[in-house]
C-alpha cells in the first residue's frame, strides 16, 4: 500500500422513502484453530471485465450497515482458514482495543475501546465509526494479507497494509490488527473528506507497477470509492495482468484487481447499488455521505 499522508488523521443514518443506514496486542498464542467450513464462492467474471475507472460503487464501499457484528462473525466462520502454527483464525481472534476520539465534521465518530473484542466486533465498530462498509474492510484484509484464509503473525501485524509504502519498510508504530483496521477505515474517510489529491474523480494517469519503467495510462476515475482505492494502492492492472490474473508478468500489480475479484467471490458485484438511479444520489451514498435525516414533525403540529 502507498499512503501519501499516513501522519494526517462517518457513520450516519439515512432516510429516503424507506429508512436505511448507510495499543495493539500480539495475535493469540493458542494452538491453531480448526479450519472453518469452506464457503461457497460466487461466480467471478473474467478479469478482462475489470473497469479501472469504476472498481466499486460508492454505495457498496460506504454502506457501513451492510453487515452487523453477528453477520461478520458468521462470515468469518464460513471462510476456509488454514492458520500458521500458533496463530488463530480471524473468527477466533480477540484483542483489547483503545478508544479513538471522534474527529469531527463528516469524519470518523468515536470508537469506544473494549476488552478482548472479537475481530468481527472490531471490524463492525470501525466500519460504523468511519462510515465505510465492513465488506470493504474484509476484502482489504484478504487482499493485503490473506488474513481470512491464511493468517500469520506478520499478517496480523500488517493486516490492512496501512503504513506500508511500496518503496520502504512498514512503519511498526501502525502494527497490530486493531491499529491496522481502524487506521485503514480512518484513511478511507480522510480520502473522502479531502478528495483533492493525486487520485481523484476525473482523468488521471495510473501506473501499472511501482517500477515507473512499467508505464502508465490515463484512467477516467468515475467515483470517490475508486479514487480511494487508487490513493491506497496506486496501480492498475496491465493488459497482461488482465489476460493472466493469477500470474501476470514482471510489471504486474494485482492489488486493485484482487479487490474487485475477492468482492465478486464473496459478496457479488462490487459495482451494485441498493437503490435505483431515480432516488437522490445521497440515498446511494454517492460521494460517501448519506441523505440527511429529516426531523420528525409531531402529529399535533400537523393539526
Describe this structure in words.
There is one protein chain. The chain is α+β, with helices and mostly antiparallel strands and 303 residues long. It has one domain. The protein is built from 9 helices and 6 strands, in the order ββααββααααββααα. It has helices at residues 58-62, 69-78, 119-130, 134-145, 153-157, 177-193, 224-232, 239-243, 255-267, and strands at residues 14-16, 18-20, 94-95, 117-118, 202-207, 216-221. Strands 1-2 form a two-stranded antiparallel sheet. A two-stranded antiparallel sheet has the order 3-4. Strands 5-6 form a two-stranded antiparallel ribbon. A hairpin with a 1-residue loop joins strand 1 and strand 2. Helix 2 (69-78) crosses helix 3 (119-130) and helix 3 (119-130) packs parallel to helix 6. The longest helix is centred in the middle third of the chain and has 17 residues, at 177-193. It is globular. The protein starts with 13 loop residues before the first strand and ends in a 36-residue tail after the last helix. Mean pLDDT is 88; it is low at 2-36.
Amino acid at each position: 500500500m502507498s499512503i501519501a499522508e499516513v501522519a494526517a488523521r462517518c457513520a450516519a443514518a439515512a432516510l429516503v422513502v424507506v429508512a436505511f443506514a448507510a495499543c495493539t496486542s500480539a495475535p493469540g498464542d493458542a494452538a491453531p484453530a480448526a479450519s472453518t467450513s469452506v464457503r461457497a464462492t460466487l461466480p467471478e467474471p473474467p478479469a478482462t471485465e475489470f473497469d479501472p475507472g469504476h472498481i466499486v460503487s460508492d454505495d457498496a464501499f460506504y454502506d457501513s450497515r451492510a453487515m452487523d457484528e453477528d453477520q461478520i462473525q458468521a462470515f468469518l466462520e464460513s471462510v476456509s482458514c488454514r492458520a500458521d502454527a500458533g496463530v488463530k483464525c480471524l473468527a477466533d481472534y480477540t484483542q483489547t482495543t483503545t478508544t479513538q476520539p471522534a474527529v469531527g465534521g463528516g469524519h470518523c465518530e468515536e470508537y469506544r475501546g473494549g476488552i478482548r473484542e472479537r475481530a468481527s466486533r472490531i471490524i463492525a465498530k470501525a466500519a460504523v465509526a468511519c462510515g465505510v462498509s465492513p465488506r470493504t474492510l474484509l476484502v482489504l484484509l484478504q487482499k493485503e494479507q490473506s488474513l481470512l484464509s491464511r493468517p500469520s503473525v506478520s499478517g496480523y501485524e500488517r493486516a490492512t497494509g496501512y503504513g506500508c509504502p511500496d518503496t520502504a519498510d512498514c512503519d511498526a508504530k501502525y502494527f497490530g490488527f486493531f491499529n491496522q483496521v481502524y487506521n485503514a477505515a480512518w484513511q478511507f474517510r480522510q480520502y473522502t473528506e479531502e478528495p483533492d489529491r493525486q487520485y481523484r474523480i476525473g482523468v488521471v494517469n495510473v501506473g501499472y507497477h511501482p517500477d515507473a519503467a512499467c508505464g502508465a495510462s490515463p484512467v477516467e476515475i468515475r467515483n470517490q470509492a475508486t479514487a480511494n482505492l487508487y490513493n491506497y494502492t496506486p496501480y492498475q492492472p496491465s493488459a497482461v495482468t488482465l489476460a493472466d490474473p493469477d500470474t501476470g508478468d514482471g510489471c504486474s500489480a494485482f492489488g486493485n484487481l484482487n479487490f474487485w475479484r475477492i468482492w465478486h467471490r464473496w459478496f457479488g458485484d462490487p459495482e451494485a447499488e441498493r437503490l435505483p438511479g431515480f432516488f437522490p444520489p445521497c440515498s446511494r451514498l454517492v460521494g460517501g455521505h448519506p441523505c440527511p435525516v429529516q426531523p420528525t414533525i409531531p402529529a399535533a403540529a400537523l393539526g
